[in-house]
Recover the amino acids of this structure.
């Protein structure tokens, strides 16, 4: 059912952003110019990777309240 035209036509309804594999099905992705993008500094993020991983490991992954 997932590869039927009817199944792939559900994409736009549920905002499932993938390209259909069946001809004649409406595309479910938005226009690229309408998408809000994040101004992401890859160099800064790479330079601070260790701090991010350490913080995640120490504060989030080990948080007792998240292990329930």
């Amino acid at each position: 059912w997932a590869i039927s035209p009817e199944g792939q036509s559900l994409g736009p309804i549920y905002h499932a952003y993938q390209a259909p594999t069946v001809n004649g099905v409406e595309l479910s992705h938005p226009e690229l110019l309408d998408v809000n993008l994040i101004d992401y500094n890859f160099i800064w993020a790479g330079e601070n990777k260790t701090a991010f991983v350490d913080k995640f490991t120490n504060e989030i992954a080990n948080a007792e309240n998240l292990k329930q």
